[in-house]
Structure formats: structure tokens, C-alpha cells
Amino acid sequence: MSKIFYTKTDEAPALATRSLLPVVKAFVKSSGIEIETKDISLAARILAVFPDFLKEEQRVSDDLAILGALATKPEANIVKLPNISASIPQLKAAIKELQSKGYAIPSYPDEPQNDTEKEAKSRYDKIKGSAVNPILREGNSDRRAPKAVKNYAKKNPHSMGAWSKDSKTHVATMSNGDFYNNEKSITLPEATSITIEHTDSKGNITILKDKFGLLKGEIIDATILSKKALVSFFKEQIADAKAKDVLFSLHMKGTMMKVSDPIIFGHAVKVFFKDVFDKHGATLEKIGVDVNNGFGNLIEKIQELPEAQRKEIEADIAGEFKKRPAIAMVNSDKGITNLHVPSDVIIDASMPAMIRTSGRMYNPEGKLQDTKAVIPDSSYAGIYSATIDFCKENGAFDPKTMGTVPNVGLMAQAAEEYGSHNKTFEIATDGIVRVVDASRNTLLEHPVEAGDIWRMCQTKDAPVQDWVKLAVTRARASETPAVFWLDENRAHDAELIKKVNTYLKDYETKGLDLRILAPIDATLFTCKRLKEGKDTISVSGNVLRDYLTDLFPILEVGTSAKMLSIVPLMNGGGLFETGAGGSAPKHVEQFINENHLRWDSLGEFLALAVSLEHFSEVNNNSKAKILAETLDEATEQLLENNNGPSRNVGEIDNRGSHYYIAKYWAEALANQDSDGSLKAEFTPIAKELASNESVILNELSSIQGSPVNIEGYYIPNEKLVNEAMRPSKTFNAILS
Ligand SMILES: NC(=O)C1=CN([C@@H]2O[C@H](COP(=O)(O)OP(=O)(O)OC[C@H]3O[C@@H](n4cnc5c(N)ncnc54)[C@H](OP(=O)(O)O)[C@@H]3O)[C@@H](O)[C@H]2O)C=CC1
Ligand SMILES: O=C(O)CCC(=O)C(=O)O
Ligand SMILES: [Mg+2]
To answer: What is the ipTM score, two decimals?
Structure first.
């Protein structure tokens, strides 16, 4: 039975879909399209791994595993909403909420003391960070701004901060000792199995990862980030930020890079608050402070100390703040710095947001100030320094006239760094780490020191072939130059370039402008064309896919949430992501306080249309095709008439925009002549929606302005949240 699988996730997207999905279900019902919801929210994912701790009626199925298996089958048709990629603080908050609601799951054991706690931690660690997308993404990524979205941005340009030549904002990155500079890479001539081993200075061998298989043609690379080099880099950059009077700000991807980046984050906190750690290290250790979870963890943990001791530490922290450069703030009103929580500042969104704001971030006084953006590893930092330099030289981009940068991203089967967590280790003692094959040949080796971060990445051959094909297809279909962002001086990229050159020969590329440029050159080439209003496809690896699909969309159309984001699954199915944006916790806060949800579901409209189109092709269902086409028309109309949510309470919000999408969709169905029964069904509905417009909008806006209680954040009360998201009796009656 062919269905569209819809995901239930978290935060703003989950609120929004409770208003939209009833519309969708009502519209597709007569066309033989079934929609099934699968719950992959953080709360559900936690409950799914602890059935043995729950009462029978509290147990839930492991919907993520079900969808993951589905993604490898041709019949997959999945609409994927953004979900929380939980940092430890978010994970703990979700656990606490579940426990308070009577779910007897274990607490997160920071330092497991026995086997039971170790087992609990290992279950939780699978849920931590970016644990959803890598499971569903059994294909490469095709993200672009649809024409209607670009046209809307040109007509209604979002604000764009000016850039001046004397901005002090800059990117700081390491010049040695980092992942980029230490990388080694090979392509396997034959399938094999490997183990990862650490040999200490006395020759004792520790198995870091036991035997696992690799495929023929797979690229593997290994590299290390030196702790010593990292610590001295942070020291220099903190001093330099002070000297230059710019904000210190750290940009990492603690969610996706869930093993390495929290460790790096922790070093930044320890170096920044060095004097506090020198003086109080033993106490902090004793109370279990773990700054890999951010400076916020220290603040939280010292609350347990006797008052005098706590006050002494707080005074020393205040003293240290005075000695150091100001830190960029996440929330200056609440005193939350960039170093408080690793998931607050996520590089893909934080760097473009800063570039949109003239390179400034908020300082502790709540004013915008030039910034030192610290991005330790130099593999990709250059794309941001090149963009910043370009803006300094040429001024800010103009959304009214700039071109567009679609992306074709290598992503399938946990490609590259984003699949490296189970092969990333914080090294315990000096020695050598080796990747050893089945015949005990050493494939890759690095001398290491205690505290270094060693990691290995895998890139399978079939995904690379599929990615090259997708790049050629997109370049041909859109008649747009395409640039492979690959650096011949980087070990991994050099291997990948060989494959790209080989597989490009499989295609007719005559008339196409295809290039391979190192990331910095690719940035400059792309930015120059972008400024001139020209389009350029970026064809990139997995990390740059993530970075570029926020960077350019945020500059071009204000947010990546308005992107069409398709994952053609390698086995023939389709995964349709609703934009590239995240789950916007700020939006939930506003909703709870003011009953106004400013989340824009545009990405969901776009994803649903391509999902319906895919459904029509696979199932030979002509009605699904008409539903897809008319939904796209409705989306264009919605953009044309500016019926998206406003940021301000009392004005149209997410729910109001869903009324409009329903109205325009019904009208488009009533106006088409290809299918008589859809026309007959939707003509009266369109009329009813139109004639009740003011009543419905009034019902949707009159409830705004006061707090709304949905009894929870990670697992709100279903009844309350559905009522809150569907407050118009008139609209509900028409839909039913
Ligand atoms: N695919 C996925 O599942 C992804 C999940 N995430 C997760 O999302 C959470 C938050 O991430 P964060 O880095 O803050 O990034 P977000 O993308 O959630 O938000 C950044 C900002 O972009 C704007 N924005 C994003 N989407 C929309 C939308 N649909 N409508 C209107 N405005 C939007 C909002 O700005 P404004 O203030 O102007 O309203 C928002 O504060 C984290 O838990 C993260 O792990 C992040 C990326 C992808
Ligand atoms: O899965 C995640 O944590 C984030 C995904 C993301 O940022 C992206 O794909 O753009
Ligand atoms: Mg991203």
C-alpha cells in the first residue's frame, strides 16, 4: 500500500503542522492518498529506546527505525519536518519533562558508575545530536530556492546590513595541527574489514573500534586535531580579540559533530576561563562540571556548592570576564553567552545570520559589535572569510538583484565527517592510532598525544556516483554553471576529485560549464556571479552542503526555511525535507507567551507538492499530480499576496497563512479542468472559504495576545496543542 509518511517532530515545526496537516488530509482524501504520521520527536525517540522502563500503555514504536528502513525501499515517500538535534542540555530537559509526566526512564548519567548506568548512557548517546537526518538520508541532497520564492524576495527584500571596508569582523582559523592539515586519505581497491587501534608508548594496544567492513571503492580518511595546537590557538585568539576590541565568538556544529565539537567547545571554555579553572579546578571536577556541555553547565553545577564557596567562584568568574574580550551573546538580556550551550550557536545558521547583520553580533550590552568568528578547523572556515572579505570589498549583497546558489550535496549513507561519530575518539595517552586491515596492513596512521581528537570518515562509492549524476542533471535542467567545491590540496578531496573526473565521463557534458574549485576560490567565483545577478550551482560534500544551504539562502531569501529540499533516495524513493531551517525554539517561546506563531510553513508547502508529484509518478495517480500542481500555484499566490506569517502579535501568524494556502489551493482545484471530480468537490469549498474569510481570520487573530498553555515543551498535551493550533471553528467545520 502506497502512502505518504509524514513526520511529527518538535518545537515550532511540530506546532505548525498540527494546523496544516488537517488541511492536507482533507484535500487529498478523495484522491486515494493516505497519509500516515510517524513520531520522531525527541520525546518519542527517548521513549522508543526504553520500553523496559515503561508501563505497557506508555511504550511507543521506534518510528525512526521504521522510517530508516523504509528510506532504503523504492516505495518510500517521506515528508520530513525539522527536528531537534539534541545537545546534552536539551536531552536532559526532555528526560526531566518525561519523568515529571510519569515515565520512569533513567536520568542521563554524566559519569556512569555501573553497568546499568553505562547501558542507559549508551542508549541516550544514540539519541543525542543529529540522530535523525543521517538515518533517513539514504540519498544525496538537492536544495534550491524555487522561482516563486526568489521573486518574492526580490519584491519584498528582507533587511540586509551594510558592509564597510573598515569592519573589524574576521574569521580566525588554525594554520596547523587541525583536521585539515593532518588529514590522510585512501581509496580502497578491494573490500576489506578494518580495526582502529591505539598503541601507547609502551606498545600496549587498545582497540578503539572493533572489526567492521568497508566496500570496494570506498574513500576513507583519518585525521587528528592536536589538543596542544588547539589550546594555544584559543589563547592567541582570545588575546587578539581583546587587543582588537572585537567580540569573541565560537562557531561549531556540536549537534552534527556530536563527539568532536563538544570537546573543542569545552577547550574553548577552559581557555577562556583559565584562571577560574586553575584556581577551582579540583572543586569543579568534584562536583562533576563538564564544560563540553558549555559554560552553562558550570554555572548550573556551582549552585550545589555552599554559598560562600559559590560566591567566591562567581566573583572569580566576574573578574575573569573583565580581563577577557567581550563574548558574543545569544541573549544579552539574560546574560547567555555564546559559550553557554553548545547547541545555541550552530555554525551553518550563525555565520550567515552574522554576515546578514554587517558582520556584527550582540555584545553583553545588547548592542551590535564587530566580531572575531573563531572556527578552529580550517577545512571549511575559508568560505566564511572569503564571503566576509567579499562583502567588505564590494558591500552587502542586495536581495533585490542577487542571483541564486542551488546546492547538490553529497550526503547519502552518512558520507564524510557527518558519519564520523562512531569513529571519533578523544585520545587517552600518547602513542599511535592505526587503521589496520584484515591482513594486518596499516592503511592509515597518526602519532597522537593525550587529548588529541582522532577521527575517521567514510565515503562510499555508490553515493559519489549518484551525486555526480545529480550534479550533471541539475546543471543540464537549469542550464546553470556548476562548481564542485573540492580542494586538490586536501587529502580527502584529492581522492574525491579522481572519482568526479572518472564519473563525469559517463555523461554528455557538452555545453555544460562544470568546474572543480577549492572552497575559497569557489566562494569568490560564486559571490562575484551572485552579486551580478547570476546563478551558480554549488556541488559540495556533506559539511559544505549544510553550510552553503544556509549561507546563500539566508542572504538571498532571508531564511533557509523557504528552500525546496529534495533527497532523491538512491533506491528510488523520495525524502522531502521541509526547508533547510531548524526548529526555531524562539518561535515556541513567542507562541507560549503571546499565542502568536511566526513559523513559516512555506518549506512544508513546497515539500508536500514534490511529495505529491512523486506519489503521482510512482502510483500512476493523475489526481495526485493535479493536487501537486495546484498546491504550487497556491504557494505562488500566497507569496504574491504576502500572506506569510508576520513576526508581530495580533497580525497574521502561521495559522492564518494556512487558511490562505487552503483557500488558494481550493480555488486552483476549482479552476482547473483536467479532473472533473476534483473540480466539483472543490468548487463549493473554495466558495465557502472565500465567503468566510473575515470570520475565519478574526477567529484566528482574536485569540492572540495572551499566554497559551500546552502543558509541556517536548511532549505537550495533544488535546491542548491541537486546540491551540486549530482555534477557528468556521475553518475546522469547512475542512471536515
Ligand atoms: N533539518 C533539521 O532537522 C534541522 C534541525 N535543526 C535544529 O533546530 C534547532 C534550532 O536551530 P537554529 O540553529 O536556532 O536554527 P533555526 O533554523 O531553527 O533558526 C534560525 C532562525 O531562522 C529563522 N527561521 C528558521 N526557520 C524559520 C521558519 N520556518 N519560519 C520563520 N523563520 C524561520 C528564525 O529567525 P527569526 O528570529 O527571524 O524568526 C530562526 O530563529 C536545533 O535544535 C537544531 O539542532 C537545525 C537545522 C536543521
Ligand atoms: O540534522 C541536523 O542536526 C541538522 C541538519 C542541517 O543543518 C541541515 O541538513 O542543513
Ligand atoms: Mg543546516
So the answer is: 0.96
